[in-house]
Design goal:
membrane, about 25% strand, ATP binding, binds adenosine-5'-triphosphate, cell membrane, 12 helices, binds magnesium ion, Rossmann fold, four-stranded antiparallel β-sheet, single chain, six-stranded mixed β-sheet, 2 domains, ATP hydrolysis activity, alpha/beta, about 350 residues, Alpha-Beta Plaits
Length: about 350
């Protein structure tokens, strides 16, 4: 097996005049989880479909385990499996019926199909629900049976397109455990997600895409380091002191305070520009400044910047003079762009 499970050069996919994938270069190392992160309409699903040979590219090239996705589509299909953004199992069949049917279609004999299905239903915590129709499954159970269906034959490369969108935290954790188990078996996973914490939990490398282009790529550490050397988190005793605390922190750290829905929580990214002080020394000065200003601080921590901060910094297309609250929504909810509804 080669060094890269996926290699693309200048990959393009257009829909009419819309360049959904607009020149993507990717290198996905074999045996890892590679995260593709991007807001709605960024081109994630389109890119995955091209790589999985479900859509034909309009430009550039892509190879999966060295096979060209156009010229050698069959060879690619033999190595990959896709769990789509929208469930692909049959609603009216039970969990067992779905998996056995798919296993039979994949060429397993009846006993082997039954055995593999039972094994996966057990492993995915669906044994008790195995004889219920899938339409009566919860969202989390649906996702799990979907992933189970896509690994009936252990693929060399598994595409997981937003596997946890809409799931509660417990179900998300279950899916994450499944992804880890799949990778431990040697499968390479390309995971698309809008959730930064998901990429943080699972992916070794991440490509951030927006408007069909890769706008940043690297390990989590590299991406975080690109926005700053540290992130100061403060919890105040009293929400009324927040405006004062924001002013003191902004002045002490020479950086904008990020908006937080929690009225007593403040986060500031320390970027290290214009100072020789380390992030920890800058944080210590900020704490001292808060104390001098008579602000009661219940909790103070210095951590790495979050991937959230990276994402907002990268997908922020608005000038820096916009107020922070406006800039925050620009990354999360890109209503500033026109998209045809799919
Ligand atoms: N079959 C299609 N026909 C026309 N336009 C399409 C088609 N599929 C996707 N698009 C457009 O291509 C762009 C990228 O869509 P895509 O589904 O790849 O985004 P995404 O990153 O997966 O978004 P989401 O997070 O919402 O799933 C969007 O502007 C979308 O409207
Ligand atoms: Mg999508």
């Amino acid at each position: 097996m080669g060094e890269f499970a996926i290699e693309t050069e200048g990959l393009v996919k257009t829909f009419g005049g819309n360049r959904a994938v607009d020149g993507i270069d990717l290198r996905v190392p074999t045996g890892t989880v590679y995260g593709v992160l991007g807001p709605n309409g960024a081109g994630k699903t389109t890119a995955v479909k091209v790589l999985a040979t479900l859509l034909r590219p309009d430009g550039g090239r892509a190879r999966v385990f060295g096979h060209d996705v156009v010229a050698e589509a069959d060879a690619v299909r033999g190595r990959v499996s896709l769990t789509g953004q929208y469930a692909s199992v049959d609603e009216d069949l039970t969990g067992t019926e779905n998996l056995v049917l798919l296993a039979r279609l994949l060429g397993h004999g009846r006993p082997a199909a039954r055995e593999r299905s039972a094994q996966l239903l057990e492993a995915f915590g669906l044994a008790d629900a195995s004889d219920r129709q899938v339409k009566n499954y919860s969202g989390g159970m649906r996702r799990r049976i979907d992933i189970a269906a896509s690994i009936l034959n252990t693929p060399d490369l598994l595409f997981l397109d937003e596997p946890t969108t809409g799931l509660d935290p417990r179900s998300r954790n279950q899916v994450w455990d499944i992804v880890r188990a799949v990778v431990a078996q040697g499968t390479t996973v390309l995971l698309t997600t809008q959730y930064l914490d998901e990429a943080d939990q699972l992916a070794s490398r991440i490509a951030v895409i927006d408007h069909g282009r890769v706008i940043a790529e690297g390990t989590k550490g590299e991406l975080k380091a690109s926005v700053g050397s540290g992130s100061v988190h403060v919890r105040l005793r009293d929400a009324e002191q927040r405006p004062a605390a924001e002013r003191v922190l902004a002045a002490a750290l020479d950086a904008a305070v990020q908006p937080d829905p929690d009225p007593v929580a403040l986060t500031v990214t320390v970027d290290g520009h214009g100072t020789d002080l380390g992030a920890a020394e800058q944080a210590a000065r900020a704490l001292a400044a808060l104390t001098r200003a008579g602000i009661t601080v219940d909790n103070f921590a210095l951590g790495q910047p979050s991937l959230d901060a990276v994402f907002l910094a990268l997908t922020d297309r608005t000038p820096a003079d916009r107020p922070p609250a406006d800039r925050a929504t620009a990354g999360r909810d890109p209503t500033d762009r026109k998209e045809p509804t799919a």
